[in-house]
Amino acid sequence: MSRQSKPSKIEDIARMADVSIMSVSRAIRGVEGVSEKKRAEILKIARKMKYMPNSAARSLAVANSNLIGISLPTFAADVFAEILNGMRQTFDTAGYSSVIDTTEYDSEAELNWVRRLLSWQPAAIILTGTDHHPETRDLLKASPIPVLEIWDHTDDPIDICVGIDHFQAGQMIGEHAVSLGYQRPAFVSTPRGHDKRADARLEGIRRVFSQQRAAPVIAARPPLGNAFVTGFEGTKTLLANHAPDLICYLNDHMAFGGLMCCQAEGLSVPDDIGVIGFNGLDLATVLPIKLTTVRTLRRLMGITGARNLLARINGVPTELSKILPLELQPGQTTRPQTDNDLMKKGFFRSSQSLGR
Amino acid sequence: MSRQSKPSKIEDIARMADVSIMSVSRAIRGVEGVSEKKRAEILKIARKMKYMPNSAARSLAVANSNLIGISLPTFAADVFAEILNGMRQTFDTAGYSSVIDTTEYDSEAELNWVRRLLSWQPAAIILTGTDHHPETRDLLKASPIPVLEIWDHTDDPIDICVGIDHFQAGQMIGEHAVSLGYQRPAFVSTPRGHDKRADARLEGIRRVFSQQRAAPVIAARPPLGNAFVTGFEGTKTLLANHAPDLICYLNDHMAFGGLMCCQAEGLSVPDDIGVIGFNGLDLATVLPIKLTTVRTLRRLMGITGARNLLARINGVPTELSKILPLELQPGQTTRPQTDNDLMKKGFFRSSQSLGR
DNA sequence: CTGTTAGCGCCTTCAT
DNA sequence: ATGAAGGCGCTAACAG
């Protein structure tokens, strides 16, 4: 096939339309400074000549671009896919393109990617979490580029952030578990230090159990892998070495793997053991029993983050730090909260009235 | 915070190092033409001055970039995430950045994205499937940019392709089902025309059943949504209106939703009804019974595609069209193939000996 | 090995 | 409303 000899540039169009280069530039960008008549004609000719702008040239001239960099830990988790979806839609309609990176939870990799991305003078950069390589922070702090940190929350963001409070999420789970009377909780997570948010949630649970029950929380840390599988395997080793009456999971996928393991081990949920997930994924809606979990507003998070970031790009003031609410969703994988109901009604008091 | 006054450029470094701009350019790019002594010194100064290259300027000068565009239907499917992972790793280490798009199965959206992307003179473009807007094809055919079509297969790719034969996959499922003696098959899919690959697989199943059993295949097409949920819902309406003895699913996630539905409806799998998935996802490994499915090599597909594409970018000859193998994995969600085993041993013959 | 020259395609600025 | 001149930062191509 005849591969296009040479793409046309605005100069070619200017020559064809018998106008100056500037008129073409203005016409194409849609800025004022050309009569409507001229503009229409120029655009017609541009279309006929299959004109395609050169973003590099434009970017060089204006010292920025319509690229937005997005760094995620991984694609292998619906959670980030959903956040991403919410953002991409917003950016896409605003004319931005997404340069995406997956760090696999490696801050060095993130740093290298940020470096490469900055060379494109992107319109903005989005990072997952608030835990980055110090040089990444320095680099971004020193640049005029808007930065959004998403999913986690901090009082000291690089620029702006939208997320949830993972420690509080852990506390929420802990409070609920305590209110249901659980005594020997466990948490199936990822390798230590791998995911700061996971660690924060575990700390939240621990805080509550240590304060209100003086009980430890056993942490199981299966090796990395598919979430369903790590949930399954983590539970298996956990049950082999301990006798928890409740297992909390890093997320719903792992909780599902855990449920399958309990079933395989002949344990009945919630009679023999309780299970709590995290995120409130759609997966849970098809299960025969409703999963106790914490609902996170992932899509909203993506949309909110994108909106705030766009505002910042356009110089409009916006909230620098936004925390999204969490909602504990009691299900059938934990024991019913009869006692708790009674307590609420004031029949008797328990340790619950102590905490927080 | 003091936001960097003005990023340094190679000219600044040249001045500092007391050499010409070109020496700096060569030193930084790592090309020959500078003495090692000079290079070392230049790099040291560059680091000290926190030099950061300007990709737009480079791109403008050399008329290409190290951006690679990747278009996927959606993130909401592990399948594409896995393919993407395989690719990204390869590209990343080769120094490319990924500009990613999700079309949500809309060819117009894909076209618009391709247009925007082309303005960056990317090193390559990757599209999912072989079914595109005609203008997308024209645009890409006319450009000198390498194009990879992935996941599906065609004899007439835009440029090169790596994928599987979805029609053959359907036939594989059909053959297996026929060999197990199923008579009233159904297929739970997506809305008609939404996903060409889904349609191709259905056709493959239909071909086999019509040839070897003169039996139709009922197609259920639940509205779009979460795969687990659509699998569940599609099965529900299917069972309300028909009495299939086998349900094939678009993918393992939907098959899982279907299994949950069967359970909810009081049907025993595989005694009352058979279930076949697609892809061989890790999810299946944690289920109490092994899912009958077709294994696809998604990660390999990503890696192979990336490798071939890199070769093409570098002008090295590579295979233009690669089909990856499929493997039917018999599981416990379809009835055991005793009869079939007997047939293999030659005890008696059946319609099986007719086809193919 | 080193430096000079002349763009790459577009946009800002300043004339008219 | 229109156009001319100059530059964005970098790199081929050529000259020493």
Can you walk through the features of this model?
Two copies of one chain form a homodimer. In chain A, helix 7 links the parallel strand 3 (124-128) and strand 4. In chain A, helix 1 packs across helix 2. In chain A, 44% of the residues lie in helices and 14% in strands. Chain A has three domains: 10-48, no CATH class; 61-165 and 298-327, Rossmann fold; 170-295 and 328-344, Rossmann fold (3-Layer(aba) Sandwich). In chain A, the strands form three sheets. A six-stranded parallel β-sheet of chain A has the order 2-1-3-4-5-11, sandwiched between helices. A four-stranded parallel β-sheet of chain A has the order 7-6-8-9. Chain A has 13 helices and twelve strands. Chain A is elongated and about 85 Å long. Chain A is an alpha/beta fold and 356 residues long. Chain A starts with 9 loop residues before the first helix and ends in a 12-residue tail after the last helix. Chains A and B meet through helix 4, helix 5, strand 2, helix 6 and helix 10 of A and helix 4, helix 5, strand 2, helix 6 and helix 10 of B. The structure holds a DNA duplex (16 and 16 nucleotides). Chains A, B: Keywords: DNA-binding, Transcription, Transcription regulation. Chains A, B: Pfam families: LacI (PF00356), Peripla_BP_1 (PF00532).
Instruction: Tell me the helix content of chain A.
Output: 40-55%
Supply the CATH class of the largest domain in chain A: Alpha Beta
**What is the count of structural domains of chain A?**
3
- Average pLDDT number of chain A: 91
Main β-sheet description of chain A: 6 strands, parallel
Q: In order across it, which strands form the biggest sheet of chain A?
A: 2-1-3-4-5-11
Strand content of chain A: 5-15%
How many strands in all of chain A?
12
| Overall shape of chain A | elongated
How widely separated are the two ends of chain A?
72 Å
CATH topology of the largest domain in chain A: Rossmann fold
Q: Give the largest interface.
A: A-B, 60 and 60 residues
Oligomer designation: homodimer
Keywords (chains A, B): DNA-binding, Transcription, Transcription regulation
Protein name (chains A, B): HTH-type transcriptional regulator GntR
Pfam families (chains A, B): LacI, Peripla_BP_1
Organism (chains A, B): Roseobacter fucihabitans
